[in-house]
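Quick check before the chapter quiz. The format below is the same one you will see on the exam, so make sure you can read both the input and the output lines.
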Amino acid sequence: MVRHIAVVEDEADLAANCRSALERQGFKVSVFADRPSALTAFRARLPDLAIIDVGLGAEFEGGFELCRELRSLSSSVPIIFLTARDSDFDVVSGLRLGADDYLTKDISQPHMLARVNALFRRIDALTQVSLTHADLLTRGDLCIDLDRMSATWKEQILELTVTELWILQALARHPGHVKSRQQLMDAANVVLDDNTITSHIKRLRKKFQLIDTDFDGIKTAYGMGYRWDA
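Here is the expected output.
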């Protein structure tokens, strides 16, 4: 299966370079120069992954808005921001909106491709887990369906990104065992930093708390990492 990547970038040269690099890796690539055209295409058919710039033409935060809109269409389509904006505020904002990764445009092409492939490896690894274990991972009120890449808490759907689902199943598979940030990165077969893992954990907790205000199942082991204890 050839995977389809959507690149949303208003700088024509950068978009062309990104397209060429991805196509050399065997991906099918569609390029959009603005938010409206990308959104119209996403509503017709979702890509397998979206790479989005934050600033799109006259829309200073058009990429953030597109991320919100894409997340309303799908909680699981992987999203990477690729942008010149590198402030901590922008990075955190992107992750809070549901992006799986946030890259700056000074990143090398091989590094960018490695992060794209890492996201797809996470999806493949989750699928492989479903083939080698029981499809349903149940821990009390938590049920993770690896075959459908979905999760519920108290029979209500958790709208999780690929990264959030991966972190959750890594923690819930061994309740009470502390997973360090490095172990979560290693398990996901992806390069992230401590702050990114922390942001994903915070977002994951908030999604549980939208269903259950008393949720406290993801514990912090200070100086060590996190554990599932619900």
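If your answer matched, good. Residues 109-132 form the longest helix (24 residues).
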